[in-house]
Each structure stands twice: as C-alpha cells, then as structure tokens.
Amino acid sequence: MGVLLVAALLAASLFTGVYDIIHAEDGWEMFGKTRVPRTIALVLAGAAMAMSGLVMQLLTQNRFVEPTTTGTTEWAGLGLLLTMFLIPGASVFTRMIGAVISAFVGTMIFFLFLRRVSLRSSLVVPIIGIMLGAVVSAVSTFFALQTDMLQSLTIWFAGNFTSVFEGQWEVLWIVLVVLAIVWVFADCLTVAGLGEDIATNVGLNYNQIMILGTGLIAVASGVVTVVIGQLPFLGLIVPNIVSLFRGDDLRSNLPWVVLVGIAVVTVCDLFARTVIAPFEVPVSVVLGIVGAVVFVALILRGRKRNG
C-alpha cells in the first residue's frame, strides 16, 4: 500500500506543472527533459536525505540530529563555494567532489566534538550543530560577498527542484550506491549505534564504522546540495516517524525510511508548485515549516515522557 501511494504521488508530480505537455506541440519532449528528471530527482533526494538522517541518528545516539542540524549541509555549501572559486568552469561532478570532501570534514569535526564533550541533554547536541552550521554559513556568506558569489550561494541554499533538467541531475544516481552500501553494513551501523563499548565488545571496529558512516552521510549530503540545494529537517522528520512504529533496526527500517522520505519530499514539492501557481515556492521553505513543527513536537513529546 505504501509503494502504491508513493507511485500515485510520483504520477501526480509527472503531470503537475504550468506547461501543457498534452496539447503543446513539444509537450512530450518537455515531459522527457524536465518532468521525468524532476520526479527521479525527488525520489533520489528524498531517499538520500532520509537515509542520512537515519544513519546520523544511530551514530550519535540522538533523535534530533540530521545533516541540517549538525552543520553538514553548511559545510557542503562551503566546499561547493570554494570549488567554484578555485575552478570557475568546474563541472557538476567536480563541484560534487568539493562538496563531499567539505561535508566529510565538517561532519567528522562534529562527531569528534561529541566524543570529547560530555553532554547531559540530548537537546544540546542539535543546538551545538545548529550553532556550528551558523558559523560555517557566516564564513560562506562573507567569502561569497568578497568574491561576488552571493547570488549563487543564495540559489544553492534555497532547495528547489526547478533547476533539475536533463544534463544537470545525473550525479544523483550516486545515491543508489550509497543506499546499497548502507544496506550491506546495516547491522554494523546498528551495533555502532549502541555505543563504542558495546560495539568493541562484540568485535566491531568502531572507528572504521564511524568513518564509513560519516563518509556515506557526506556523499549523500554533498550530492543533494550540489544538484538540489538545502532540504531542511527531512532527515529529522522521516526516521523519527518510522522509529515510532518500528524501533531502531536499520536493516528493517531502511526501506520504510526511503519510502516515507520520498513521500514527504514529493508532497512538499507538489504543494510548493501549486500553492501560488503559476509561480513556485522553494521546497526548502515548505520543508522548513513542516520540519520545525515536527521538531518542536518531538521536543515536547520527549519532555512529557521524561516528566
């Protein structure tokens, strides 16, 4: 039933838009060059960010973290900006490499900080991540101002699927490789999520799994940032919804997380396309509003349960 529902949403995405693909002379050509790539991008981006949130929450043992609450997306944006400055004619793949390297470094800095500092409240972790992301974003904005790239930075961080068309989105297929690797190492990542002591006692190389998980998060976040931009709170909403019903086993939850992630981003994109048609609201705005409400609801739920 879930697959059928998502398939219906994707079909609605294919036939939603201002351009009349049925009666226009070049309608089906536009359908193949814009609508199909956009819908595939919805699937891959939704799956990537939902999966990244799930893995990050397991590794940090915290329900409130995901790439946009730990600064990972901001680090990816900084790497993208530096790549564009150093290599003005950089291809999409080259920009992706720069974003991935920067996201990996930033995420490792966040994880190392968590390992060295004892935190009493789980809510402090995303607050620190948001503060770190704000600092990195400030550095990116200052650098963009100095190099006359502020407009490009604004476009990149306003997550939107309008820029997805034939020839610009194909690097998103890398997400499928990331998902396959997560599936293979799902049990190891689940055990690592129980803590370093338990993982070491059962014979798991904790540091290697942490580096692997960080690398997978960096690749997924970097690719989505380059092609789509920022998709806030998606990795926070989806894993928490799934874990409420299915617990914390990564292997059994991964298909559901991917499916719900695709559904959430598709619904938000459809709303963004139709709410002020023929104009379009950035999907990041819709996700930001929905994610903020869910974030507050999770905080209140946790306080009520602990109280």
> What is the straight-line distance between the termini?
37 Å
Tally the helices.
13
Number of DSSP strands? 0
Uncertain runs are none
Per the CATH scheme, the topology name is ABC transporter involved in vitamin B12 uptake, BtuC
Shape: globular
Elements, N to C (H/E): HHHHHHHHHHHHH
Total individual domains? 1
Let me know the largest β-sheet: none
Instruction: Write the CATH homologous superfamily.
Output: ABC transporter involved in vitamin B12 uptake, BtuC
Rg (C-alpha, Å): 19 Å
Mean pLDDT: 84
Q: Beta fraction of the residues?
A: under 5%
Which CATH first-tier class would you pick? Answer: Mainly Alpha
Which secondary-structure class do the elements indicate?
Answer: mainly alpha
CATH architectural arrangement: Orthogonal Bundle
In which range does the helix fraction lie?
over 70%
Can you walk me through this structure?
Helices cover 74% and strands 0% of the residues. The model has no long low-confidence stretch (mean pLDDT 84). By secondary structure, it is an all-alpha fold. The longest helix has 34 residues, at 27-60. The chain has one domain: ABC transporter involved in vitamin B12 uptake, BtuC. 43% of the residues are buried. It is globular, with a radius of gyration of 19 Å. Helix 2 (27-60) packs parallel to helix 7 and helix 5 (124-146) runs antiparallel to helix 6. It is built from 13 helices and no strands.
Topology (SSEs and partners):
Blueprint: H1 2-14, H2 27-60, H3 72-86, H4 92-116, H5 124-146, H6 150-157, H7 174-184, H8 186-192, H9 196-201, H10 206-227, H11 234-246, H12 250-274, H13 283-306
